[in-house]
Write a structure and sequence with these properties.
The protein is mainly beta. The protein contains 3 helices and 14 strands.
Length: 267
């Protein structure tokens, strides 16, 4: 009779209780006991090609022999242990969205000057300091038009406007589930800048202004490393006329909303 078969029969006769403990790394502990004073623990290491058994104290009449049958049994038990999914350290999120920019100047009777709403394309990079805290950086680009007009009449396009938005900040996320899937809400805040390049015929001007960023969103995690992200961010900035048009006026503070959807990729 093979040694592995004799061992299993002796376990059945002795009424031994066996418990398995997986540490999530590269070892499994197997503890056998008849009474609190009669116990023995073996560790199965998965680093080798065939595995190894490291025995502790002796358990009465039970012995563990190095044999082909016992190593096969250990490999089967080790393979059945649940694998612990690794949480990504770096996340990359390419996204598309819509930029709803606020007016950069106002006049009498509700006269306003501002960028028209336009599509926006962006990329966000995040580094997970902890499972709940990440450092994030973001860049977004939109090709819009500078419009001037009255609220009820509508706006007239007066120039082309290219908008480049970039920022860095901190993102706070709720813990994801152990399975790695589910809804994960988050909030973030930081500082950045908005660069406006305005072109009207042969004339061209530009202005770069500091922006304060605040936003929130929701990740639909399909796995730990793949998800769909919905987000809304507000870039609060003041357009600098002095830099762009040579006027002694900084303009008004405006809210520039970005609503986007993208893929959340983790490594």
């Amino acid at each position: 009779m093979p040694a592995g078969t004799r061992m299993l029969q002796r376990i059945a006769y002795l009424d031994i209780r066996v418990s398995l403990q997986w540490d999530g790394a590269d070892e499994m502990a197997i503890t056998c006991s008849r009474t609190p004073s009669q116990s023995s623990t073996w560790k199965i290491a998965s680093g080798g090609t065939t595995g190894a058994l490291l025995t502790g104290a002796t358990l009465g009449e039970l012995t563990m022999k190095y044999s082909v049958s016992s190593l096969t049994l250990a490999a089967l038990v080790l393979g059945a242990a649940p694998a612990v999914a690794q949480r990504p350290t770096v996340r990359v999120t390419p996204y598309v969205g819509f930029l709803a920019a606020g007016s950069i100047a106002q006049g009498p009777f509700g006269f306003e000057v501002g960028n028209a709403g336009a599509p926006l394309y962006g990329l966000q990079l995040g580094y997970n300091v902890t499972p709940n805290i990440a450092l994030v950086g973001n860049v977004g680009y939109s090709d819009s038009e500078l419009q001037a007009g009255l609220p009820l009449i509508g706006g007239l396009s007066v120039a082309d406007s290219k908008v480049l938005m970039y920022d860095a900040g901190v993102q706070l996320r709720l813990p994801i589930t152990r399975s790695g899937t589910g809804l994960v809400p988050f909030i973030e805040g930081g500082v950045g800048a908005i660069r406006n390049e305005i072109t009207s015929g042969p004339l061209q001007s530009s202005s770069t202004n500091v922006a304060v960023i605040g936003g929130a969103g929701l990740d639909l995690q399909l796995t730990h490393a793949l998800g769909v992200r919905l987000m809304v961010k507000d870039h609060v900035s003041r357009f600098d006329y002095g830099e762009a048009m040579g006027l002694n006026n900084e303009g008004r503070r405006a809210h520039n909303w970005v609503m986007g959807i993208g893929l959340n990729l983790g490594w």
